[in-house]
Amino acid sequence: MTSEISHQSHSARRIASSGAAAAAAVLLSGLALSVSAQAVEVSISCGAVGQELKFCQEGVDAWAKKTGNTVKVISTPNETTERLALYQQILASGTGDIDVMQIDVIWPGILGNHFIDLKSYSKGVEADHFKPIIDNNTVGGRLVAMPWFTDAGVLYYRKDLLEKYALKAPATWEDLIADATKIQEGERKAGNDKFWGFVFQGKAYEGLTCDALEWVDSYGGGALVDDKGNITVNNPKAIAAFTMVASLVGKISPDGVLNYAEEEARGVFQSGNAAFMRNWPYAWSLGNGADSPVKDKIGVVALPKGGDAGKATGSLGGWELAVSKYSKHPAEAADLVMYLTSKEEQKRRAIGGSYNPTIAALYKDQEVLTAVPFFGALYDTFTNAVARPSKVTGTNYNKVSNAFWNTAHDVLAGKLKPADAVVQLESELKKIKRSGW
Ligand code: GLC
User: Fold this and answer.
1) Which of 18, 27, 224, 310 has CA atoms 20 to 30 A from the CA of 111?
2) 27 Cα to the center of ligand 1, angstroms
3) In the prediction, which pLDDT does 37 show?
4) Do 223 and 136 reside in the same domain of the chain?
5) Buried b / exposed e across 161-196, counting CB within 10 Å, b at 16+?
6) Does residue 72 contact residue 43 with C-beta atoms inside 8 Å?
7) Which residues of the chain have pLDDT under 70?
8) Boundaries of domain holding 121
9) Ligand 1 pocket, 210 CB below 6 A?
10) CATH number of the domain enclosing 63
11) Which residues neighbour 50 within 8 Å (Cβ) at sequence distance 6 or greater?
12) Using CA atoms, how far apart are residues 159 and 350, in angstroms rounded to an integer?
């Protein structure tokens, strides 16, 4: 924005030389001066998965232009687990190095005390957003973050390949395994020895917690810890879910999946080397990009049910914007947050980058639905997504998740039997809970 302001005074000088416009020039340069006198620099940390950084930068630039302030965009590690560690370090030091933080939907309970209450800046606009997310972001009666975009796990499939093998999108995990096996065999016979049936997030990190929660919940096995804080994971349905996934790696999923986060899975699917992929909606827009080998060949449905009696479920993800309590410019930082989370910005991001809005009305917007048809078709998947137990376990959530993703990773890798896994996990969770959540 500094360049914007100097550009203004420059053109003002040019007008002055024409003599007749001298008065206008004085006015203009006066305006530029008053803007620069009040202008401040705020910093924002943005994610960089896929197109995130680009979309953040564009939104930030528009706000800077509108207000005359400058914004420094700080990119953060792609993996949410690493980003949390970085934020905890920065916030614990009490410095205002980052004014606005992009935070994961699972963090308000962990980091909320370091953020200001946005209620005095929001002017009630939070009422337009999905209520469960606003509730999630309200800690001790304080609105510690505004919703930016929501997420739910979905199943991507290759439309052309389902047609080729006369299959329809799988309704259960059992169908998915059978279909993936058939397509993989066929494509390998046809000469693509790099082809795999199914890719997902199998690395030991928060992303695996999301995938594994979907497996367990789809079989009716719950969300590890219930709303009252009871540990529920040791149950036959969770064992059934783990049993299903124990057969994936090395068969329809590459060994490498044990080290895949979102972008690695997308890399394989988008280059045309997988029939199915579990991922978040952001992969839609990239998969249909001009340079994508699978452009126009992708379908998206809800994730499969765990057996006929199970349910289709996606984990609730998403990102919020919060203002650090240590910010030297809380009013400007809050204004930036309100701008970026506004309906106009969410619409731009939905159309261009397939980021799910958190404002219900945008799911009825024709331009949004044309760009991302499954926002309409899967509306229920987004609004009924299963939440990780971050609210109830509060500051212990990261430990809970850590125990879960390690267990799931061991099951995938064949190091732990499904029936032992739930027993072991239950006892670890009990230890974490020892003195209450
Ligand atoms: C996505 C989700 C986020 C989740 C992360 C895990 O970014 O929006 O909530 O924690 O994936 O990798």
Assistant:
1) 224
2) 49
3) 52
4) no
5) bbeeeebebbebbbbbbebbebbbeebeeeeeeebb
6) yes
7) 1-37
8) 38-151+318-375
9) yes
10) 3.40.190.10
11) 262, 263, 266, 282, 283, 286, 353
12) 23
